[in-house]
From TrEMBL, chains A, B:
The keyword Transferase applies. Its EC number is 2.7.6.2. Residues 148-213 form the Thiamin pyrophosphokinase thiamin-binding domain. Transmembrane segments: none annotated. CDD domains: TPK. Pfam families: TPK_B1_binding (PF04265), TPK_catalytic (PF04263). The keyword Kinase applies. The lineage of its organism: Bacteria, Bacillati, Bacillota, Bacilli, Lactobacillales. GO terms for molecular function: ATP binding; kinase activity; thiamine binding; thiamine diphosphokinase activity. GO terms for biological process: thiamine diphosphate biosynthetic process; thiamine metabolic process. This is Thiamine diphosphokinase. Keywords: ATP-binding, Kinase, Nucleotide-binding, Transferase. It comes from Facklamia miroungae.
Amino acid sequence: MFDKIIICAGAPHPALNYLDLPSDRICLIGVDGGAWQLVEAGYRLNFAVGDFDSVNQDQLAQIESASQEVLKYPAAKDDTDMEIGLELALSQDERCPIEVYGAIGHGVGRLDHLIGNLWLVYQERFRSLIPRLIFIEFDQMIRFFIPGNHSLENINDCHYLSIISMTPTKSLRIAGAKYNLEPTDFTLPRALVSNEFMDHHPISLSFREGLIMVIWEKGK
Amino acid sequence: MFDKIIICAGAPHPALNYLDLPSDRICLIGVDGGAWQLVEAGYRLNFAVGDFDSVNQDQLAQIESASQEVLKYPAAKDDTDMEIGLELALSQDERCPIEVYGAIGHGVGRLDHLIGNLWLVYQERFRSLIPRLIFIEFDQMIRFFIPGNHSLENINDCHYLSIISMTPTKSLRIAGAKYNLEPTDFTLPRALVSNEFMDHHPISLSFREGLIMVIWEKGK
């Protein structure tokens, strides 16, 4: 039984200072270079997974000695390291949140990796993870929402909130924000960016059909 | 008659050294902070557009004196500055390429702006621009493809090539790459990342239905 699953992927400078203190009820998964980031920061891992082509032999040896289990895959494989990490999260068969660090790049990782990681939520096999998944970086946080009514809090003093549909959407409504939206249908994906919180009150988001990505952003 | 339309948006550090030398057959559009980047680099603009909330009064005066036409919009408006820039490109009624700098952030801009700019290709009004649109940064280049047969050259010594569908896709085929794909249908958007050029030969991409984004990436 875990309270939380934490995955750290290999993008540079993961926001590890946002990590809660480790406890035996947290499942810590290091994905490829992310495993090394965690080990270097002094954490012991439940799992290290990946092809480890981004770490050297000495780093791999340290990862192996700091991990309960190491799953090593060939570099040329169908799944990305991150997909293997999420499969592992799925296999834990928990309902707890899944926090992912170092996956959307904090602005300095590879753009194709960023897009590839966002696109994971389109995959049928990961559907059950969508409401539990949180991407966390220093300046941004991303969550995904399925149809219903949702309350979006201001977190980490993020100034901006962008509501971005990944699919066609029905009756998308935004209330309590700087820019509100009466229930509107969109037949194609639509990015409604740079909305703002009002006096730190939560923003209401509701829709009847579709898949929404929400980006909290500190602004630069 | 223009040979090329160049748009510079406001993300930090646009790859201006990739810009061809100015000529009277290039239409140069500066979008908000991007107008200042161009003026500061010594260019004269055909158009400067935006709410200019990211530049100060002195910078705005310099933009005004270096631009043939300045279109100033209120900060709270329905269209983003970039959408206004693309509308302007559309109104030129040309068939030439549209190069966009400073729109996908070179890794240091806002993530929601990056996503918002990629999502522009979903908008019906910009459909005719899709095959002409090129996003250029120091480490990346992005183009969009409609159904047909396409040859993807290695440009700027980019090591990686990622083929990412923005919609469901029919008969997607990749040939001449490190990782090839026999014609495959995808019922949901799919990111095929980290493919590689072989000996600098072009990669063949073909598909029957859908919208594909291709990212050329130097790798980090």
